[in-house]
Amino acid sequence: xxxxxxxxxxxRTHILRCSLEGGLAVDATAGNGHDTVFLARLVGERxxxxxxxxxxxxxxxxxxxxxxxGLEERVRFVLNSHEHAxxxxxxxxxxxxxxxxxxxxxxxxxxxxxxxTVKALAVLLEKLQPGGIVTLVVYAGHAGGYEEKEAVLDxxxxxxxxxxxxxxxxxxNQANLPPSLVVIERHF
Length: 188
Prior knowledge:
Blueprint: H1 5-15, E1 24-27, H2 34-43, E2 48-53, H3 56-69, E3 75-79, E4 93-99, H4 114-127, E5 128-138, H5 145-157, E6 164-170, E7 180-186
């Protein structure tokens, strides 16, 4: 397994601890659709996933992935930045996943940004139900990626420890700034 895949798999392992059946989950960065498909399977026929991306190409690829899996009806697509999540989510969410950086195979100049990611994270944590989990796979190896990682870690380090547990997983024996994983669980 490649170093890049390890944080992605670890994020999914944490999400599997949530009760998602019939709930609402958020893919804050739809990208190529892998996390959206994963979440759509977990929410079941009665649940829903809201998939955000700023690129139509990402949502189109995600839609193809979902159609191939027979899960498209479980997902609402939002062509907008995740920073506007509050306008699209009514009620609480069971889980959310972020895969920061740029669209693999896309324009590397279009990336997630520290200020929009932190704003989205704040909104989603407020909407996260007790026992819910938010994961962020953070890539620091591209332009602006290190600053985004630092902004996310700074925000998470200031979360109320009575209300949330925030973990940061970082590979320490890999070259070329491998991705890290941030996991936040809400207690009440």
